[in-house]
Design goal:
With 155 residues, the protein is of the alpha+beta class. The chain folds into 2 domains: 2-68, Ribosomal Protein L9, domain 1; 71-154, Ribosomal protein L9, C-terminal domain (Ribosomal Protein L9, domain 2), CATH 3.10.430.100. It contains 4 helices and 9 strands, in the order ββαβαββαββββα. It has helices at residues 23-30, 41-72, 95-104, 151-154, and strands at 2-5, 18-20, 36-38, 76-81, 88-93, 114-115, 120-122, 124-133, 136-146. The strands form 3 sheets. The chain has a 4-stranded mixed beta sheet with strand order 4-9-8-6. Strand 8 (124-133) and strand 9 form a beta hairpin. Residues 151-155 have low confidence and may be disordered.
């Protein structure tokens, strides 16, 4: 069954593409969620017109993402964590924590767009990429420092 994608679908295609999928996937997932429409002669003609509209929408989204990336690139997050020997953390810094800290600073970023290969488990400075658009990524600095648990105050 051929469908026209109305939104980017991971591992399937991008906006405006005509793709072939199994009928059940189209009927039960893509069509009800508005991610795609049936590809018939009328829709294909309409697609030509919508292609220009979609390109304009993607360009606008990209411009917004580039502006957001410029703001995010200046962000440096400081996270205090308890650490043991060799600067190894008790626990780790996760994408969920980074998302919460960004939200506190006024940035709405979905944690699935925070590109961490694995959680941060050491003290130090780390560059973390955030995917804002299919072509736009921002890099923030996450500085993990040891938590001061009052040890200095006891001295």
């Amino acid at each position: 069954m051929q469908v026209i994608l109305r939104e980017d679908v991971p591992h399937l295609g991008e906006v405006g593409e005509v793709v072939t999928v199994k009928a059940g996937y189209a009927r039960n997932y893509l069509l009800p969620r508005g991610l795609a429409i049936m590809a018939n002669a009328r829709q294909l003609k309409r697609l030509e017109h919508e292609h220009r509209v979609i390109e304009a929408r993607v360009a606008k989204a990209r411009a917004g993402a580039e502006g957001e990336a410029a703001k995010l690139s200046r962000v440096e997050l400081r996270i205090e964590k308890a650490a043991g020997e060799n600067d190894k953390l008790f626990g780790s810094v996760t994408a969920m924590e980074i998302e919460a800290l960004l939200r506190e600073r006024g940035f709405e970023v979905d944690r699935r767009k925070i590109l961490l290969d694995e959680n941060i488990k050491q003290l130090g400075d780390f560059e973390v990429d955030i995917k804002l658009h299919r072509d736009v990524k921002a890099t923030i600095i996450v500085r993990v420092v040891p938590r001061d648990d009052g040890e200095a105050a006891a001295e």
